[in-house]
Write a structure and sequence with these properties.
The protein contains twelve helices and six strands. The protein is α/β, with parallel strands linked by helices. Among the domains are: 37 residues; 45 residues, no CATH class; 119 residues, Rossmann fold (3-Layer(aba) Sandwich), CATH 3.40.50. Helix 8 runs parallel beside helix 12. The protein is elongated, with a radius of gyration of 69 Å.
Amino acid sequence: MKKPPPPASKPAPPAERDQGEDHEVDFAELMRRVGVKPLAPLASRTPSATTTRAGSAAKPAPTTPTPGQTPQPLASAPSRSTPRESERLASLSARCDALIMERDSASRERDALLEERDALIKERDAAREVALARQRSLEEARAQLLREAPVRAPPREDLAAQLRGRGLVAGEEARALALLAEGDALGPLLAQLEARDADAFAALLRRRLALVCDDPACAPAVGAAAFSVARARCEVCGGSDIQRSASVFARACEGAGITRVRFVGGSPSYRSKLEELFSRRGHGGEVSLVVRVTPGDQRVRQSRSRSQQRGDDLTIIWGATELDHATSGAYRPEYGRVEVIAHRGIGRMLALAAAKIAV
C-alpha cells in the first residue's frame, strides 16, 4: 500500500505571526492572497477594456457645462422594440396624421366661412346704402310734390252767376255791363276777372272780336264783332295790300270748302312769300288753309302730278312768271280743279284767284 501523503503544514495564524510586532498590511498583496486579480491603471485602459463584467459599455462621466453652453442630453442606448410596440407606434403615427388632416380641413373650412361672412357683411352694407338712398330719394320726391302741389282755391262763380245773384235776370247782363263800362267801375271789374282756360278764352276772342281797318276788304268773318283800329294795327292786312289780298283769298277758300291749294310757278322769292303769308295765317288766323308750291321749272311726271291733284282741292297755274309749259301741262282739269291766273304780282294774283273761287 502506498503511504498517505504527509499532512500539509497549516499556516500559522496571523496572531501568531504578528505576535510581538505591528506589520504594515499591503492591500494589493492582500487582494492577491485571496485570489483577486488587480485592474489595469485607469490611464492605460483602452475603450474595449472599460467594459464591465456584464459586457455592457461603461457610462461616460457626466461633464459640467461651461457658462453660456447649452447642456447636451445624454445619448440613450439604442433599444430594440417589439412587434407590438412597432404596431402601436404606427397606429399612433397614423392617428396623429389623421388629426393633423382634420385640423387643416377645419382650418380651411373656417377660412371659407370667414370669407363668406365678410361677403355677407359687404352685401348687407351695400343693401343698407341702397335702401337709405332710396329713402332719401322718396323723401325728396315727396317734399317736391308738397312744394309743387297746387293750393286748392275756394270754389268761384263766374260773372253771370254773380250778376244773377245780384238780382238780374237773363238778358239784363249786357245792359248792366254797359253801364259799368260807362263809369269808373270797368277797371276794377276787369281786374277781378280771370279766365279758367286761357287758350279757350283767347280762341273765343279771335272768333268773336276782330281788330280791322276801314278798308272793306278787311271786313271780319261772319259772327265776329269789328273793332276799328288804325291800318298798321289791322289784323287782316297789317297795312299791307298783299296781306289783305291773302286774307280775302283765304276767306274765299273757306267759303268754297277748299282747305288745300297748290300754286305752280313763280320765282323763288314769290314762292317763299306765299308760304310765309299762309303759314302765319294758319297759326293765328281765323281760317286753316294748307298752301303748297311747285317750282315752274321743275320737271313733274304725269303720275306725280295726278297724285298731287288727288290730294289737293285746287291747283292754281301762276302764269306770267317763271313757268315751263311742260310743268304746267302736267296738271290737268281731269285730275282735279285747275285755275289759271296770268298775273305777276302776288296781291293782284290772289285777288283774281279769290274772285274766281267765289263764282
